[in-house]
Known about the structure:
Blueprint: E1 12-18, E2 23-29, E3 35-39, E4 44-46, E5 51-53, H1 55-66, E6 70-75, H2 87-94, E7 97-101, H3 104-114, E8 130-132, E9 137-140, E10 143-149, E11 158-162, E12 165-169, H4 189-200, E13 207-210, E14 225-227, H5 228-234, H6 244-255, H7 264-271
Parallel strand pairs: 3-6, 6-7, 7-8, 12-13
Antiparallel strand pairs: 1-2, 2-3, 4-5, 9-10, 10-11, 11-12, 13-14
Bound molecules: fe (ii) ion.
Amino acid sequence: MIQRSPEVNIPTVNAFFDDATNTVSYVVQDPQGSACAIIDSVLDFDYAAGRTDTASADKIIAFVKEHDLRCEWVLESHVHADHLSAAPYLQEHLGGKIGIGGGIITVQDTFGKIFNEGTEFQRDGSQFDALFSEGDTFRIGQLRADVMHTPGHTPACVTYLVGDAAFVGDTLFMPDFGTARVDFPGGSANDLYNSIQRILALPDATRIFVGHDYKAPGRDDFAWETTVGAQRAANVHVGGGRAAKDFISLRETRDAELPMPKLIIPSLQINMRGGNMPPADEGGKVMLKLPINEL
Length: 295
Ligand SMILES: [Fe+2]
């Protein structure tokens, strides 16, 4: 039985917003010690030039070092389709174990086929240090973290519930923006609805930290923190007790009009490898593929 005092139940959360991809990365800290976890990091990528940059990740590294934090975990809420993960770079500089939902195996299988990866591409999640299942718990220092499997946006999405803070990745966005799209391979509006109902069943005061923000009509600033109570009352897609069938038709109608994220092709190839580039070719060069009429 894990003992929790109220103080230990409230992590210190620092957010890092990436303007280029509208991604929010988090450093989640044990307030009673120096342990921290980094959630959903970004490796900058100039697609036109085929060039990576570590400016965003370096900001997180500087923050962790400046505050004398010890990185225990580098976590992913899912295989992102809109930005590259900096997890291996952060691990190299800060240590920590890289974790993701165990459903990654399904995602690797799906995208391994789409990108026609050979047998050298392991589809067993072995690129990660930890594969989490529903109900798993782990520690960030004295903080307890619980893993909820919250599929829908992808089949492998997880929510990390750390004390009173839920890191929901791409399930719910801010109440005035709604929810995440479900039209990538393996996505499901019905699954997303059910996952969201489980998040909304957490205590009202639970802080919710979202994985992206795009502003919203009438809001000029980026935002990423809200609560379960605010989502249940006012989320424009699922608030006020919206029925599953209404959500599903709203979500599917909206998804039909959304363009693919700019970085989906590079993001999937790299993120399905835990943030690592594909192996270099015989000439020592790293190349990505562009499958035609597949996505
Ligand atoms: Fe995503």
